[in-house]
Amino acid sequence: MAFNFGAPSGTSGTAAATAAPAGGFGGFGTTSTTAGSAFSFSAPTNTGTTGLFGGTQNKGFGFGTGFGTTTGTSTGLGTGLGTGLGFGGFNTQQQQQQTTLGGLFSQPTQAPTQSNQLINTASALSAPTLLGDERDAILAKWNQLQAFWGTGKGYFNNNIPPVEFTQENPFCRFKAVGYSCMPSNKDEDGLVVLVFNKKETEIRSQQQQLVESLHKVLGGNQTLTVNVEGTKTLPDDQTEVVIYVVERSPNGTSRRVPATTLYAHFEQANIKTQLQQLGVTLSMTRTELSPAQIKQLLQNPPAGVDPIIWEQAKVDNPDSEKLIPVPMVGFKELLRRLKVQDQMTKQHQTRLDIISEDISELQKNQTTSVAKIAQYKRKLMDLSHRTLQVLIKQEIQRKSGYAIQADEEQLRVQLDTIQGELNAPTQFKGQLYIIKVCYARFYLGFHMLLHFYTANIMIFCCSSSLVFFLAIFLFPFSMCLLFQTR
Fold first, then answer.
1. Complete DSSP assignment for 194-226
2. Helix (H, G, I), strand (E, B) or coil at 71
3. Where does it mainly reside (predicted)?
4. Torsion over CA: 89, 90, 92, 95 (sign)
5. Distances (CA, A) of 455 to 152, 443, 446, 459
6. Residue burial 134-153, b: 16+ Cβ < 10 Å; e: rest
7. Which of 38, 86, 236, 355 is most buried per CB count within 10 Å?
């Protein structure tokens, strides 16, 4: 389901849009080129354009035509939204075209056809004359229902073929606005996206053969080298491959072939056939839009989209610097975006799992490192003590027979002061001594208490209970006297 805004017919050349996958947005103004028989990286001569979102069909999405024509040079809106999480890249190509007062989305040479289509659609929806009685009003309501649904045929006149209702018609209710990510790559980066109707595992296993095949498509020129920038899995067992071509000159310098030049070569009829034989279903450049192009896109709502909804979509844009609103037409497009989102969610989850494993490994390494650091600290402390002992012995031997010097005497006084403070009753050693004494007395009292109760139990078994209870009550007082200190 290509999303097309009416394509002005070019004066020469072939259509530039490749066959888009189902439900995809074809591209923002792909261009047709006139190219020679040999492969050249000179700037192509562009003489015509297709619709805003790609596709070579003459049938535009909407009924807007220009009133009067003006001749001038303007800039197209690139080669496609593409595929992926951001649903591809908004790509640009410089082109010459005739514009009308109706704007970028008008179609000068197709004005009579679109006018007839507009009149026929209006007749089918409002005033059919098929039966000539009150049943025409019922037929009009049925045609309106088909137009709202986006499918079916609207019969309105016996002498005129019925109107074909598709989801691209402006009356279709199944429309919404989503957001696509805008690429930040320059045309000089030379990135071109090729969508293969193959699985990613198959592409990766045959990557070298794929590069060689693409090199043959480029004419087998030895000065050209095909490089794969990256691959990504798409829904429906498709794979996106991003490539660029490096051209080496005889003097040893090299440069990347511009994306628009490489794309123009791929869009030649014979080259496109070779790419289709390799399994390519879609090709597009991945280049950024200029601010003027973005402004022009945002100012004009797509045909069939309510301007109020379009303005609200611009207001609700979560990141206007990186995202741009794009229309979604029909359930197939909604399903496609849902599949792409699900695919990207799985890829994000896989990446999060990898990051989690890396974090766990780093935590293990950190624990090991902390243990080693503590071990090395202990070794350092031990070596410091041993080194200090060696220095002391060496100093004693070196100064053997010498009189004590003033600084040594001062150091001895300081050490004696510290030793006296440590040995004071209120300091560490005194408190430690008190703790030791208390512990010894407690240990002794506990054993005496144990023996006392054992003896009293034996006495109780042999004598009266009065003596036993007197001994029980008098013994704690004797223990209190025993545990008094100082």
1. EEESS-HHHHHHTHHHHHHHHHHHTT--TTEEE
2. coil
3. nucleus
4. positive
5. 111, 19, 14, 6
6. eeeeebbeebbebbeebebe
7. 86
Look at residue 85 in the predicted model and tell me its pLDDT: 36
- The whole-angstrom separation of Cα 96 and Cα 133 is 52
What's the CA angle centered on 356, arms 353 and 362, to 5 degrees? Answer: 145
Whose CA is closest to 189, among 240, 252, 263?
Answer: 263
Q: Write out the H or E segment, with its range, that includes residue 272.
A: helix 269-277
How confident is the model at residue 367, as a pLDDT? 96
Residues 6+ apart with CB under 8 A from 110: 6, 8, 9, 58, 60, 65
Alpha carbons within 13 angstroms on the beta-carbon side of residue 217 total 25
Please tell me the distance from the alpha carbon of residue 193 to that of residue 242, in angstroms, as a whole number. Answer: 5
Q: Give kind and range of the element (H or E) at residue 383.
A: helix 330-398
Cβ-based neighbours of 192, under 8 Å, separated by 6 or more: 242, 243, 244, 259, 262, 263, 266, 283, 284, 285, 286
Angle at 275 between CA 272 and CA 279, to 5 degrees: 135
Q: Tell me if residue 381 falls in helix, strand or coil.
A: helix
Ranges of residues in the chain with a pLDDT under 70 are: 1-114, 427, 447, 453, 455-486
Burial of 239 (0-12, 13-18, 19+ CB in 10 A): buried
**Phi/psi of residue 143, nearest 5 degrees:** -65, -40
How far apart are the C-alpha atoms of 26 and 79, rounded to whole Å?
Answer: 8
**Is 177 within 8 Å of 309 (Cβ atoms)?**
yes
Q: How far apart are CA 17 and CA 20, in angstroms?
A: 8
Report the residue count for the chain: 486
- What backbone torsions phi and psi does residue 161 show, to the nearest 5 degrees? -60, 155
Tens digits of residue pLDDT in 212-238: 999 998 888 888 999 999 888 888 888
320 vs 36: CA distance, rounded Å: 41
Give, in order, the Cα–Cα distances in Å from 39 to each of 190, 270, 281: 16, 12, 22
Q: Which two tokens stand for residue 369?
A: 């490192």
Please give the pLDDT value at position 118: 80
pLDDT of residue 46: 41
Q: What is the pLDDT of residues 403-432, one digit of tens each?
A: 888 888 898 899 888 888 777 777 677 777
* Distance (Å, whole) CA 275 – CA 196: 9
Q: Identify the pLDDT of residue 471.
A: 56
**Token pair in block for residue 343:** 């695919």
- Strand partners of residue 33: 46
Is residue 72 within 8 A of residue 115, CB to CB? The reply is no
Cα–Cα distance for residue pair 456/433, rounded to 1 Å: 34
